[in-house]
Fold:
Amino acid sequence: MRQMNDNLINTFGEYVFTDEEMKKRLPYAVYNKLMEIRSTGAELDSASADVIAHEMKEWAIEQGCTHYTHWFHPLTGVSAEKHDSFLSPAKGGGYIINFAGKELCKGEPDASSFPSGGLRATFEARGYTAWDCTSPVFVRKDAAGATLCIPTAFYSYNGEALDQKIPLLRSMDAIDRQAVRMLRIFGNTTAKKVNVSIGIEQEYFLVDSKKFKQRKDLVYTGHTLFGHMPPKGQEMDDHYFGMIRQKIASFMKDVNVELWKMGVPAKTQHNEVAPAQHELAPIFEQANIAIDHNQIILHTLRRTASAHGMKCILHEKPFAGVNGSGKHNNWSLVTDEGKNIVDPGKTPHENKQFLFLLSCIVKAVDKHAGLLRESAADAGNDLRLGADEAPPAVVSIFLGEQLEDVVKQLIETGEATHSITGEVLHTGVRSLPDFNKDATDRNRTSPFAFTGNKFEFRMVGAKNSVAESTIVINTIVAEAISEACDIIEKAEDKDKAIHNVTVRNFIEHQRVLFAGNGYSEEWIKEAERRGLPNLATTVDAIPELTKEQTIKMFEKFGVFSENELRAREEMKYENYNKTLNIDARVMVDIAGKHIIPSVIKYTKVLADDINSLRAAGFEDTSVQEEMLERINRHLKSAYTALKALVVIDEKANTIENAKEQAEFYRDHVIPQMSALRKPIDRLEILVDKDYWSMPSYGDLLFDV
Ligand code: ADP
Ligand code: MG
Structure:
């Protein structure tokens, strides 16, 4: 055991070009320059870049690397890379192993095939990747050998962002500036920077890879398009935190070891609510690093699953009827002096700075609730949000008993004089210690919940990056702090102004606070009464991106230009439309080529059976007849629905305007897809399993 722990510490970050490694290898002045650039953001001169690149390459070669890649995240949602070897032509002929500073700092992948939402035409292929020196360089070892991966940002010829990283870094800058401004108002003269920390909990499913491959819907779309619930689902709650089976445990061990080597601080693992569903959470890190690390986690989960004869499913809703998978974004702000300013301390009512910040967060979330919801919008996530598990599509904030009480005091009396403390919890068992109860319980149904010293945004789907939501949270909070600071900095009596702004924010935006059951019907009605937006689908949410107040805010803080926002809006529609078009076509394919023909074969078996029985002199063939009648009836509905889906999907494809097309998918294609699914799921329980062409939900979920 001790040896395993030593291994954990010794191998952690083995594949990372860490700060210590750089300190060892780089000339002192170059190392210092790089550290300075990281915190202040100046430009790296070419001489220093050459030195860093050279040492990086030397280190990479020691790790067995032959290639390097600028590793970036285009708006496709998955990471992209183009590999180059370290081989370079030598001056007098022949070749040398070389890696120049300019190759480290800038890359030029052909950008024409990545989504840009019209930011550049296909013939304008130029796009650039630029080294993000704040996220560590690492080596990935796989079938391709060892590759040096350089985290980069991706932008167009005109400098517009073609990825999530650029706006993310811009938004981190925006909140940094505003939060430091706030600290100054509260008398802190020493902190130079405020960083965004995020911890990303990742849910996923594991299924047997042979069975996965027999399901075309899983292969093509990542989720099932048909499937009847097995006799047992998740109703016994016996999977959540249940004993981890040996096969899964062995998978998790390999995932952890891989991640630790790549410097990803994997920490918590457990079974999730649904059968075959699990979770992995690393320790929180600076936002851009945590998001890069989440990409490494997704990749590692997939790769390790394959090596274990399994498939890792990251879709938000792989199976209807059991919980889908999310990605929780735990967000906080920490100063360069190491203080988490989202931590209220033991007596929040006395912590004026915290209450001020909290009031700004409440205002930000209320004002931009629709935009926040949009940051988690995706065709797959539409199947999950509000489906009795993940949070509803209505954004609200859960503060917990203690803060709620302090806010209530402020709203009702203008003063907060006390904080509820957690009383002692008596276990009633002599051999068990009594302990202090937390001052606040948890609320799992809230999309935006305060959890002690951070906020947890729970809407994002499992396969998507939390970059979008982090960009939104950073910027909306930056805006609210900035508006408040504008007032306070001008005021004669600053203390009074702070107090007034804090109380006013709470009064004006209290409608977004909600502590009840977010899954209930009553809440949806109550939310409507309060005027909170309920954007049920992606198509309803996308317009939030280009609302006037959104554009104004993002432009003010230099996070997105209007052009970039319009491009993102376009891309989101396109992505939605393509996803649904593929779903519809796969449904048609499976129903038409596999299910309906198999059911027809089975009806022949029944019909033959009836004839044989009659020929043998049995008069009562009523069971077979009834089955045949029922199956035939559902078969007919399925066939009719299939034909209608083909027609309607073809019609969808003729619509040119992306928004109108998306609306058509939402209003016509999706209902027709459900109309096809219904009779087919009925047929699944009527037809002999030997005649059913795909593994069932039960086979997938309970027999990994
Ligand atoms: P739960 O499932 O109870 O929400 P977990 O422990 O599974 O909690 O995950 C919580 C996540 O929040 C982890 O990634 C953790 O590192 C992260 N986290 C903890 N403290 C902070 C903080 N101050 N800021 C951001 N993230 C944090
Ligand atoms: Mg959580």
About this structure: The mean pLDDT is 92. The pocket of adenosine-5'-diphosphate (ligand 1) is lined by residues 197-199, 201, 268, 281-284, 330, 332, 340, 453-454, 456 (CB under 6 Å). DSSP finds 23 helices and 19 strands in the chain. Residues 562-615 form the longest helix (54 residues).
